[in-house]
């Protein structure tokens, strides 16, 4: 579990670096914005709003790319509804390393599959992990590099969107606590 968290942090860090580079290319935002009509200077939007806007933009770009890869990799054959693909608890990749030390390395003799993980109750009612293949792509060592990279990208971008959804869920819970704090305690 900690390795998944580390991977997510690494991916998040890479995306933040890209955003920083993109912002450096753009002209800097001043602390004040001049109102052209009135000739007055007004405080610029809060930096928190700017961060939320850039994270919203990153999220929109990410979900657009996930959807493109969903179609291109034909994931829809196993999971027909794009929105339902995020109902899975986790997603993994067999046949290719995703850890920092073996990232994108193929495992000889293994087959590449996108594996979705869900939890379903067994006969005794205890939750048990269930793996579902969302895509089978053949032997790892015979896979085209471009296709391998798109498969890896799909899994990583799916995880990134899942993280956004989790953050959104916790923001909603915190908002509920803040609005009902007088009645809860």
Reconstruct the topology from this structure.
Elements: H1 2-25, E1 32-35, E2 40-43, H2 47-72, E3 90-94, E4 111-121, E5 127-139, H3 145-184
Antiparallel strand pairs: 1-2, 3-4, 4-5
Helix pairs in contact: 2-3
Structure characterization notes:
By secondary structure, the chain is α+β, with helices and mostly antiparallel strands. The protein has one domain (2-21, 52-168). Helices cover 49% and strands 20% of the residues. It is built from 3 helices and 5 strands. Strands 3-4-5 form a 3-stranded antiparallel β-sheet. A two-stranded antiparallel sheet has the order 1-2. Strand 1 and strand 2 (40-43) form a beta hairpin. Helix 2 crosses helix 3 (145-184). The model is unreliable at 26-37 (pLDDT under 50).
Tell me briefly what this model is.
With 185 residues, this protein is an alpha+beta fold. It has helices at residues 2-25, 47-72, 145-184, and strands at residues 32-35, 40-43, 90-94, 111-121, 127-139.
């Amino acid at each position: 579990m900690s390795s998944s968290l580390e991977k997510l942090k690494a991916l998040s860090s890479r995306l933040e670096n890209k955003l920083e580079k993109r912002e450096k290319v753009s002209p800097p935002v001043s602390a004040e914005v001049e109102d052209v009509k009135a000739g007055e200077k007004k405080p610029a939007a809060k930096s928190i709003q700017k961060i939320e806007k850039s994270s919203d933009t990153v999220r929109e770009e990410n979900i657009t790319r996930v959807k493109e890869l969903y179609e291109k990799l034909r994931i829809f054959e196993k999971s027909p509804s794009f929105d339902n693909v995020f109902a899975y608890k986790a997603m993994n990749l067999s046949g290719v390393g995703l850890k920092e030390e073996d990232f994108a390395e193929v495992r000889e003799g293994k087959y590449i599959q996108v594996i979705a993980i869900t939890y379903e109750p067994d006969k005794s009612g205890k939750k048990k992990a269930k793996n579902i293949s969302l895509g089978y792509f053949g032997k790892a060592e015979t896979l085209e590099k471009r296709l391998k990279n798109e498969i890896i990208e799909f899994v990583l971008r799916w995880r990134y969107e899942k993280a956004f959804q989790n953050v959104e869920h916790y923001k909603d819970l915190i908002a509920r606590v803040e609005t009902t704090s007088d009645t809860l305690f």
